[in-house]
TrEMBL record:
Pfam family, one: HATPase_c
Top-level EC class: transferase
Transmembrane portions of the chain: 38-58, 89-108, 120-139
Reactions listed under catalytic activity: ATP + protein L-histidine = ADP + protein N-phospho-L-histidine
Entry coiled-coil feature ranges: 139-205
Signal sequence bounds: none
This protein's name: histidine kinase
């Protein structure tokens, strides 16, 4: 057959179209890059091939052309055998190529046999064409499915990449934030150490201020027993001199001697009593100045209240000689002893008594109430399993909006320089935390204040 025959040209165009279709359908630029330069120039190659065949009168419809094209095409598909759509294309074109090659050889080399069996050959090629179309549709579906899978994998890979990037970013932020928190923690720990140091200094300052109040009261209070000791000592010396003179007389008066000895004994008893009183005051001062041992001791609360009430009163009078006030006691004799921390409870009582006398002093200075008599009253009583101590005054009172704040650290109603604001705070902690008791306040502005201490007895 001549090159210009439609069948020969169709063979070349069919081959070129098959290669071009395969190039696009199977994405050979990516999957078979070595073939890509030739497939891009497929039309040029086949055009040259047609031109050369025209010059040399080559019949393109003979079976050798079909066989060569088929072998090259099958070889190319075999290179993509790992790709499932390529395997399906190979399965699709195999019958068509087989019948095409066989038909071409029979038609060219056995034309008589071809004429008698052309219907069978044409039907076979037609069947293979249907087969080709069916499996190409299947291959196309496989390609779309694989494309979706690849896209999903790509999307998942991109998501993993984004997640990994976010993870690294979060790890960096966490590390950075952890470093900041660690630095802040160290700064807070340092500030806490400084705060505790300052707190201890302030507490010690409050204790020293309390000790100062106590010392002033002791200086005044201890003077009375010392005066009694001195006076009875002088009288006792005179009695001894009289006794010695009487014993030196030749006619001794035994009744007088007995009377002198009785008076001397009474004086010594009074000296012992007032000496004990002075010793008790000094002991109380020493207890007050010591740090708490944490050991509870059975204490006579009535005696403790009476003693510190006097010391607080005389401590204020040591500062202001013009100040005078009544202090009353209503002490329950059935109270007995109560197990407490003596140093701590003494500080609580001294603070409450000092505040009470300060309140009545301030109201007296205002002079707004004619005939006003400053009065502080202390009472004790047993109430079930509790020992109750009540400290009342008729002083200035506490405004309603300030009552909730008086137990807060550093809060004070006194002018600047006259109070640290730690006295009532420490007293509240001692009673509630140190003794599991309660400390309550009742007050009315302009009429007075009452503090109520309840301790487990």
């Amino acid at each position: 057959m001549n090159v210009s025959s439609p069948e020969g040209i169709g063979t070349v165009l069919l081959a070129a179209g098959a290669f071009q279709f395969t190039r696009r359908f199977l994405d050979t630029p990516t999957r078979l890059p070595a073939w890509e330069p030739y497939l891009q120039k497929i039309w040029v190659v086949f055009g040259v091939f047609i031109g050369l065949s025209a010059l040399f009168s080559i019949d393109l419809s003979n079976g050798w052309v079909a066989l060569g094209v088929s072998l090259v095409y099958v070889y190319m598909l075999m290179q993509l055998y790992y790709y499932q759509p390529a395997r399906m294309v190979l399965l699709a074109v195999a019958p068509f190529l087989l019948f095409w090659v066989i038909g071409s050889f029979i038609e060219h080399y056995a034309p008589t046999y071809y004429k008698h069996n052309d219907d069978f050959i044409d039907n076979s090629i037609g069947f293979s064409t249907i087969w080709l179309g069916t499996f190409l549709v299947i291959a196309n579906r496989q390609k779309k499915t694989l494309l979706k899978v690849e896209q999903e994998r790509a999307r998942e890979a991109e998501e993993r990449r984004i997640i990994e990037a976010k993870k690294q970013e979060l790890e960096y932020l966490v590390a950075e934030r952890t470093a900041e928190i660690t630095q802040q923690k160290e700064e807070l720990e340092h500030a806490l150490v400084e705060l505790k140091s300052t707190q201890n200094q302030l507490i010690q300052s409050e204790k020293m201020a309390s000790l100062g109040e106590l010392t002033a009261g002791i200086a005044h209070e201890i003077q009375n027993p010392l005066n009694f000791v001195n006076n009875f000592s002088e009288v006792s010396i005179e009695l001894i001199d009289e006794l010695a003179e009487e014993q030196a007389k030749p006619d001794r008066d035994l009744d007088l001697e007995a009377e002198l000895l009785t008076d001397l004994k009474q004086n010594l008893q009074k000296i012992n009593h007032h000496g004990g009183r002075a010793s008790s005051i000094v002991k109380g001062m020493l207890q007050h100045s010591r740090a708490s041992t944490g050991q509870r001791e059975p204490i006579d609360l009535n005696a403790l209240c009476d003693e510190y009430l006097r010391l607080a009163y005389h401590g204020l009078r040591a500062k202001d000689k013009s100040f005078n006030a009544l202090f009353n006691t209503d002490l329950d004799a059935s109270m007995g002893v109560v197990s407490v921390l003596p140093q701590d409870i003494s500080r609580v009582l001294l603070n409450l008594f000092t505040n009470a006398f300060y309140a009545v002093q301030q109201r007296q200075k205002k002079g707004e109430t004619p005939g006003y008599q400053p009065t502080v009253t202390v009472s004790t009583r047993c109430a079930g399993n509790e020992a109750v101590i009540t400290v009342s005054d008729n002083g200035t009172g506490i405004p309603e909006d300030l009552k909730q704040k008086i137990f807060q650290p550093f809060f004070t109603t006194k002018p600047t320089g006259e109070g640290t604001g730690l006295g009532l705070s420490l007293a509240y902690d001692i009673v509630t935390k140190g003794h599991n008791g309660t400390l309550e306040v009742e007050s009315k502005e302009g009429e007075g204040t009452t503090f109520i201490i309840k301790l487990p007895a």
